[in-house]
Amino acid sequence: MKHKLAILILLCASFSANAEFQQLAVSGDTTITKEETTAKAAASFKTTAFQLNANFEIKPEKKLKTFGAKYSPIPQVTVYYGQLSFGGLYTRIKTPCFTVPGALSSVSVPSAGISVTMPTSGTSIKTPKALCLKASAGNFSLTCMTRHKEAKTEHDEYLFGLDYHPPRTRLNFSLTGGSFESQKEAGTRWFLSERPYEREKIKYAVFEAIYNGSYFKLHSANSVSTTPFEKPTGSWRLSTTLTSRFLRLDSGLFWCDADHITIEETFLRKTLVSYVHPQLKSVTLKNGHKIRAGLTFSAAQSYSDGMAPECTNRGDLAFAAEYKTNLLTFSLSAKCENALHGASKQEIAELEESRKAEESGNADGGHGDSSGGGTEKSTSLFKLMDFATANSFLCYTEKTTNVLGLGFKAFPLFLGRTQQFSLNANFKVFPLNKKKNSTDASATLTFCPNDKLSFFIKQSAGFSVDEESEAGTGKTNIYFLDSVKTEIKARLKCVYKNSSGYLTAKATIKKELDSDDGLAILFYCGATFYIKP
User: Over the chain (533 residues), what is each successive 10-residue block's mean pLDDT?
Assistant: First the structure.
């Protein structure tokens, strides 16, 4: 890596004669807590052809944490070196499976190609150094990258990507390939938890297609890679979005082989994920009020670790709605998590038999078993189908949680400025293990008397069932105060701007009243100087 840096500096010195200065930014922040005091500094120098970012640790140690250099001899070619962060398609190569959206979340089309980000003050010192080249010509763009990783298996990672955007269309195609090395050593235990393999270079290829239309959006990604085992593995990801004036429908499907190894040297255990997400977009009523609602149903199949992994099927359901006026906002949410999807015929027969046994027991005197047996082992969720049929829709399991959330927000005017007050409560119910039931509530006040000063106060409390008290009394659903937390935050921010740059200074005080170690004071100051092109 040292000779690569020397070559980059030589190129910058050779072609920077005509570069024009654009920006110089310096900043520093200090955090004071009871345990320690930390201080950091950052600097960024930017011209039309060259940019250098550096981040330093001043306290408790004095050292260079991260740095990055960016050089563009011509607008179509850019060279990067340093502790770089890669996004876009690269994040989907690291984590091929999508994240199931929430009931009111909007699914956006991912950005095409591989993006490169220079290190900032928040970049981890463990980020490996990388050398990257990005070039473009017409509707084609090229990305080449190499970096040395030491996280699990020390090796050099290589990547090559080609993107194509057909003219006068909303299509993007990407073809990416690369290689990395991976190794899994055998443990000393008699029963191994994972399949071991020797150090081996794994090659992979990814093809991605994106269409970003006004009413229809599509994203498809296919990958294939070699493995230390007998045959190659792959994954497939498809997401679509249909939109109209008031409605929106998102859907997704992901599939992969159980032995698929990612570039993070981890096995993908979630082999099948799908979701459907219909949503009522924000609709304005005649009185000016707005309403929106959404529903997400997802199903997944995953495998546990081990030489003989167990298969788990699950289905989650989430609903949320929001009603908004000029001064008030009401929200309602409901979720059923970790529900078994598609009970087997044997389970259905056992459930039906236990249900009949309990009914006969109640008929004989009402002394059915209430200790967790009978129908407590698995209960129909929505009663959409009878357990007597072989196509049961959803069943409760030991991990099933029903969550009901209520929210309230107010936006009062004070001193000519809008303030905010919110109140939220979540009720968690475990159908088959009521001793885990809990309730969380929080109240938040954000007060901004002017554009420089702001206050934030949050009071939260948790209620749960006391298992010891239940064991002694034999009663259930008796809630006791479990935790109380008060958080206060005050911030003063001053900004001075003119035609040559701006100065920023911030002071933030954070305190948890219920914790002696919860005080933190943050000072930040920054200066940016620039010349307008």
Answer: 52 55 88 87 90 91 91 92 93 91 89 90 87 93 92 87 92 93 69 68 93 93 88 92 93 90 85 94 90 94 75 88 93 87 50 60 50 40 40 66 94 88 94 86 94 94 73 61 90 90 93 81 89 58
- CB crowding 22-60: b at 16 or more within 10 Å, else e: bebbebbbbbeeeeeebbbbbebbbbebbbbbbbbbeee
Query: Alpha-carbon distance 97 to 254, whole Å?
Result: 6
Task: Please indicate, yes or no, if residue 226 is contained in any of the structural domains.
Answer: no
Q: Cα dihedral sign for 31, 33, 38, 39? A: positive
Using alpha carbons, select from 330, 328, 379, 322 the residue that is nearest to residue 350. 379
Closest by Cα among 375, 369, 372 to 353: 375
- Reported in sequence order, the residue ranges of 50-192 that DSSP labels E, i.e. its strands, are 50-59, 63-74, 77-82, 85-88, 114-117, 130-137, 140-149, 155-164, 171-184
* pTM attached to this predicted model: 0.80
Going through 150-246 in order, the beta strands assigned E by DSSP cover 155-164, 171-184, 197-212, 216-225, 233-243
Size (the chain), residues: 533
Number of domains in the chain: 1
Domain that holds residue 470: 423-533
Give yes or no for a contact between 102 and 296, defined as CB atoms under 8 angstroms apart.
yes
Q: Which contacts of 51-56 are long-range, i.e. CB under 8 A and separated by 24 or more positions?
A: 51/118, 53/82, 53/118, 53/119, 53/120, 55/119, 55/120, 55/121, 55/123
Residue with tokens 């690291």: 94
With respect to residue 455, please indicate whether it lies within any of the assigned structural domains: yes
Q: What pLDDT was estimated at residue 477?
A: 62
Within a domain: 532: yes
- CA dist 251 and 272 (Å) reads 14
Residue pair 277/251 in contact by the 8 Å Cβ criterion: yes
Q: What pLDDT, in 10s, does the model give residues 267-291?
A: 888 889 999 999 999 999 888 899 9
Please give the pLDDT value at position 392. Answer: 46
Are the CB atoms for 380 and 392 separated by under 8 Å? yes
The upper half-sphere exposure of residue 441, i.e. CA atoms within 13 Å in the direction of its Cβ, equals 8
Residue 236 lies in a domain: no
Instruction: Classify 186 as helix, strand or coil.
Output: coil
| Amino acid type, 66 | T
The predicted pLDDT at position 373 comes to 39
Q: And the tokens for 295?
A: 């529903």
pLDDT value of position 451: 87
Q: What is the DSSP string of 285-307?
A: -TTS-EEEEEEEEEEEEEE-SSS
Q: Which helix (H) or strand (E) holds 348?
A: helix 345-365
